[in-house]
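@channel sequence for tomorrow's demo:
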Amino acid sequence: MAAWAAAALAVSLLAPQALAGSAGPQDGAAPPPDPVPDRIAGQGTAAPRLVTGLSDAAPGGSAADAARAYLAGERDRFHVAAGEKDLALLGTEGSTVRFQQRHHGIPVLGAHYLVHLKGKGERREVTGAGGAYFTRLDAPAEATVPAARSAAVARTALKDPRQRAAAEVSDHGLVVLPGGEGGKGRLARHHTVRAVAGGEAVVREVYVDATLGAVALQHDSARQAETPAKANGTDVRGKKVTFDAARQDDGTYRMSDLTRGSRIDTYDAGGRDYGEFLGQMPAGMVPVQNKTADYPASAGESGAVNAHVNSARVYDFYKSRLGRDGIDGKGGTLTSVVNVTSGGKPFANAFWDGEKMVYGGGGAYYSFAAALDVTGHEMTHGVIERSANLVYMNQSGAMNEAIADYFGNAMDVEAKGTPMSDPEAGLLAEDLCRTGTPKECALRDLNDGRNAMDDYIGATVGQDSGGVHLNSTIYSGALWDIREQLDPATADKLVYKALTEYMTPLDRFMDGRNAMVAAADAMGLPLEDIQKVTAAFDGHMIHTGWEHHLGIDSKTVLPDITSSFAAPSAREGRYVVSNSDATGTKLPSVFTGATSGGAAKRLSPDDGRWHEFPATDGTYAAWMAIGERDGAQSYDVLTRRLAKGKPKNVFSSTTVQPQDIVVDGRDVAFLGYDLTTGVSDVYLSRGGKPAKKVKLSAGHQAWSVDMRDGTLVWTEYWKAEKGTVFVPTAYDVERGKVLVRYPPKQSDGDKAPLAGYTKTAGDRVLWTERAQATGAKTAIRSGTLRGPGKVKDVVPADAPYAPVSTVFTATDKAVTYLDVKGGQEWANENLSKLFQVPFKGGEKPVRLSCNRGTQTAAAADEGKGVLWIDGTGGQTDLVTRTSPAGSCA
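structure tokens (generated this afternoon):
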């Protein structure tokens, strides 16, 4: 599903670089001068990613048979098994044959291999080939987990028990997930889980390991006899419109266009929640109907008339200009639903849900179906899904959005007769607002001039699915420049050919550039036009190695973090972090390595459970394992040495969820949140023995634990006569005794400050403290561990640099905290950044790193060294600095 707002309705799968990538020159190398590369190698596979410039004979038979025979004859060169059980024909698009890789006859997720041809019969030649094909697969061919059991596991992907109870689970059969250890892949069963409950709608694709029974991957549609007829109505602005409809045998009319290769149906949700239409059509729905051919004004006000007319315009554009018969290329029905809401309120958005277009509107906006570029955008998502299927995450997701923007806007300027030279030609959705100028209304501008090196927003995988909306105009801007430089019709055909014949699901920006250049060569465009194509991408700084020129001042410790929940822990030169493999298809595992870099080692067993939220003291590690036991989710806490040994279980429960796990030698502590009572207690395991509750006073709870050198700290809170009291507390583990408490400065009920995040370092306990007032800033305070001493402000609340957030990490040399700016536009300067102050305070904080992207989940190592999760480099990485950068001016 693709939507317009950065935070709305975005579904992610896995990082596009995970399954296949392009190998290029080292950092600092210039782009190759030849605009048509001869060969681009694959990563983690013997099959080449892209081969061009061929003129090999491939005579006789159909194009598909010739392509298959060619690959079979060139096995030593391409390493592609071309038998029917290995390659399934997906179709022929133009001069390109597209195959789906199969392993033992089972489809491999994201694995498309393409063969490019020219000529016919005895004169047919292969001009190029490539795609994603995995040569190291060794996954089993038969499932050992029954389908019913697999469906039950898929249901657990929904965490909300109300959604689980209401969920419908469908079974799409077996699929092989590529990647994994040694590239062997993983056999899984694909399910779609749909649920609407508790005011929230979910449609989730879930892949369950077919041998372990664990979730391996997940990523957040009867009619009377009728005849073609004409109908009349008014659009959202009151303009009279005639459109194609269907006259029923009973004399009534429906918004069903029967005159084109694809049927076009338009429905009115009548204000129902958009969640009821996610991936399905509620029972009893029929296209918008009326007793006569003259539809009332309400059909226009809802957006139905615009959606119906614009869908026909989009179909005509694809058919007449690009030769495509509808979204699926096979004349399948084009379905639109208008007038949806969100929780009873206006839904100012639109999206493609994999089957149909869904439009909201209201308030300051007309129906989102009112803009042809929006309709074209949403329908193009369907075209993309049924061709290259660019994965909706990171750079491939940004390209998905970019191509949808390009074609939506191309249709709009064509329909309006707007010249490409018009400064407003690149505006997207500029017709949606009831008031204001087009430029004020537009949601995006393809002429915004953004380039990869200066403007790429370093969002992590947990933000806008890695920046699919935030970074789309970098790629679409290059495409739009090409449309300005070439004949527009030629440019449209070029982008379409690149999409349908040269791109594969996990392409990055450079893959997209190479696809465009290869398609231009295949079209026989003159060299000067190909040079215009390359110049457009150069103008947006999409060239070889662009990610390596982003001014990164940190050292990468572990690249390509694919879990949005990854948070490191570090001490004494070692770190632990949870992550999937490079493909994003494996369940999270716990890894350890040196904070100075080098190879990472997996600590957690490959047992079909989630292993996440680890902590370390530099010698030991502890973490949470999540799995299913007797039909319920089980939460376990495991611990082991970093160097060697097997994990030992120190806690297991189906009702208590561990949080804030910390480790100190063989002792492990954590918060235990009871899902049945809502109460949080401190749990402590001594010497590897089963964890037990630390006794708190009646009615008392705790949050944010930390432990070092035999001292356990937490914030204890309870309901007092005048309000809730928050008290940072230090506890001697050996003696089982509270060492010190630091009550708030005020105790007059609801005005008492909130003490929250708690850490220990050196001989002190540190905590955050914030007044209970709107916009209040956060102080970081500290006190001695061995008795109530004078409280010091490491960061005073009244300092101009005091943060709003309450997250920090500390050693006995420095305190590093996260500063989050709120209410700002998406821009690198507004993303969260890390600041450091001396352990004793008294100095103005300095920037830990000048990296421009998101900095989050900081973990102090030793001295002033810190590790964190960083999104600057075009993907999400675990990085480090051993000292702060200081000023970033």
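heads up for whoever presents: Residues 5-39 have pLDDT under 50 and may be disordered.
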